[in-house]
Amino acid sequence: MGEFIIKMPDVGEGVAEAEIVEWHVKTGDPVREDMVIAAVMTDKATVEIPSPVNGTVIWLAGEVGDRIAVKAPLVRIETAGDVGEVQPVGISQTPIAETPKAEIAKPAPAAPTPAPAPAPAEKPLAAPSVRLFARESGVDLRQVLATGPAGRILREDIEQFLSHGTAPATAKNGFARKTATEEIKLTGLRRRIAEKMVLSTSRIPHITYVEEVDMSALEELRATMNGDRRPDHPKLTVLPFLMRALVKAISEQPDVNATFDDDAGIITRYSAVHIGIATQTPAGLTVPVARHAEARGIWDCAAEMNRLAEAARSGTATRDELSGSTITISSLGALGGIVSTPIINHPEVAIIGVNKIATRPVWDGTQFVPRKMMNLSSSFDHRIIDGWDAANFVQRIRTLLETPALIFIEG
Asked: Do 326 and 274 contact (CB within 8 A), yes or no?
C-alpha cells in the first residue's frame, strides 16, 4: 500500500492561501481517477480539484471555510502501490466549468475497481447552490436521498423529495410550530462579499446623492430601437444607455473614474472606462467588468453586458472578467425600489445605483401628466469627491438620459 498526497495548488499572483469551499468526499470514501474531491477558492476564482489516482481518502486538511496555505497537504489518499515523490497539484485560474486536470506524478497504472456506495455522512454533501435551494424550499438535506457521485445531493434529488416527501404535521388550527435552527458558516464567495462590504463601509466615507430622471423619451427611443433591431443585435435595456451616458459624463469629470489607495494616499485616474456591472448569481453578488466602454457603441455595450452577466451567473467568468473596474453600476431591475444607498466597490470612488422605472404624475407647469420616472441613487467617496461635484456628475447623467439624442452625438 502507498500514500498519495495532494497539495493546495499555487495559483500565482502572490496568493498565499486558498479557502476550502466544498468537500465532495470524507475520510474513508473511495475515490476514482478524475473524480472531483474538493473545490477551493482564491479571491473570486473557484476551482475544482480532481483526484489523479484510485484509492481511499485517509485524511482531509480541514473543514469547509478553512484556509489552507499554498503547497500545504490538502488530501491524503491510500493507494494500491508506491507512488514515489509527490508534487503539488498544478492548476490554472479558470472557472469550474473549465477545471483542468491535476498535473501530478501518477503511480503505475492499476486495475480500477468499482467504488462501493458511500456511507451516510453526518453532514450531507451538496453544492452551495443546492444548499441554497434546499433552504429556500424548507428541506432538511439529511432527509434527502442522494443520487450524485460520492453521495452528493443534486438539485433533482430535492425536487424529487418535494414531489414525494411528507408534509410536516400541523396543529388543529392549520398552523404548525417551527422550532428548528440552523447554523450556517460563512464561506466561499459569501464570505468574500462580507469582507469586501466591511472594507468598503469601514474605510470609505460615503455620500449618497439621489435624483429623479424623466425616462419617457429614452423609453420611447428604446422601444423603437428594439423594434427595428437586427436579428444579431441583443434586446436593449436601460443599462447600455446608462453606460454610454457614464462615458460622456466621465469625459467632463474624470475624477469619478478613479481608484484610491488610501494606504499610500494615491489617486489613480483612468482614461479607460471599465464599468463593473453588479450582478446577482446563485452563489452571491459578483461584479463582471465591461472593459473599454468608451470604445463601445450602444449595441456593443448591450452584447458585452449580456455576455458577462451570463458568464457570472453560470460560474464561467474568468478572473480578468471579474476585476479591474474603474466605476460600477448597481441595478436591481424591477426590484430596484424608489431609493437605495449603494456601497462603493473598493477601491473605486463612485457607484451609480439604478432604481425602478415607474409612471408618476409630473407637473408640467399647467397640469399633471403621466411620465416614466426613475431615480438614480449614487454614492461617492467623500474624501475624493465633494458633494458639489457629485451633484454635477449626476445632473449631467440626468441630462443625457432625459435627452437621449445627446448620447449619440460625438465630440
From this structure: yes
